[in-house]
Amino acid sequence: MPRPTLLAVSHGTSDAEGARTIAELVDRVADALPDVAVRAAFVDVQQPDAKDAVPAIEGPVVIVPLLLSSGFHVHHDLHGIAGKRADAVVADPMGPDPRLAEVLAERLAAHLPPASDGPVILAVAGSRDPRSLTDAEGMAALLQQHLGRAVELAYLAARQPDLPTALENYPDAVVSIYLLARGYFFDLAERQAPGRTITLPLLDGGPVPQALIDLVVARYVDAEARLDD
Fold first, then answer.
1. Percent of the chain surpassing pLDDT 70
2. What is the tens place of the pLDDT at every residue in 68-102?
C-alpha cells in the first residue's frame, strides 16, 4: 500500500534565493523518501496555496510544516485544512529541536571569538500566538545547552525585546538568525543590525544541511504513525 503523500508547507517568500533554497530542501527530502510522493505548498505569497493543494491530493496526506514554531499558520490554517479530511494529519513544526541547534551552532562557529564566553542573541521572527513564545524559549534553551554560553532572545516582530533593544543590552553579542531562508525578516534583521555580525538563515544557499533533511523526514514519519492509529 502506498505511503501517505508528504505535503511540505512553507510560509512562502518573494525573495528568489529564499524560494530556491526552500525548494531545494523539499527536493532533498524527496530524495530521502523515494517511496513517498513529496509535494510543496505555501500558506502565503507563493502558489500553490495549501488550502488548494490538500484537496487535490488523492489518498492519505501528511502535512509537514516547514515552519520553525507553532502559531497561527500551523494551528489555524493547516489544522483547519486537515480537519476537513479523515485521512490527513499535520506533523509538528520543525522547531524547537536539537537538530536546529546543531545547524545554528555551525552557522555561529565562524563568528564566535574562541576566547569569548559572551552571550549570543537568537533573533526569531516573533508571533502574538503564545505557543510561539514557548517554542522560541525552548529553542533558545537548546542552543544555550549546545553552545555552553548564554543565549538571549530578540524578536523581529510582535514581541519584546526587539533586535535593536537586544543589541543595546548586549553590544558585543553575535546575532544568530533563527529563520529558515532569506526573505522579509532576514532583510529586516540586516536593517536593524547595521555593521553587526549576523549569521545566515538555516538554508544559506550552500548544500542543504543533512540535519534539516533528517528533521523533516522525522516529522513525517512521526505523523504517519498517527494516521495508522
1. 98
2. 998 777 877 899 999 899 999 999 999 999 999 99
Quote the cell numbers at residue 65: 510544516
Burial pattern 79-116, b for ≥16 Cβ within 10 A else e, equals eebbeeeeebbbbbbbbbbebbbbbbbebbeeebeeee
Q: Are residues 212 and 146 in the same domain?
A: no
Of 55-59, 132-136, 210-214, least confident by mean pLDDT is 132-136
DSSP 123: E
Beta-carbon contacts of 15 under 8 Å, excluding residues fewer than 6 positions away, are: 181, 182, 183, 184, 186, 187
Identify which of 25, 33, 28 has the alpha carbon closest to the alpha carbon of residue 3. Answer: 33
Among candidate residues 221, 173, 218, 220, the one with its CA nearest the CA of residue 199: 173
200 is a domain residue: no
**CA–CA gap between residue 115 and residue 11 (Å, rounded):** 38
Dihedral (C-alpha) 190, 196, 199, 201: value to the nearest 10 degrees?
Answer: -10
**Domain contains 158:** yes
Structural domain boundaries enclosing 140: 98-192
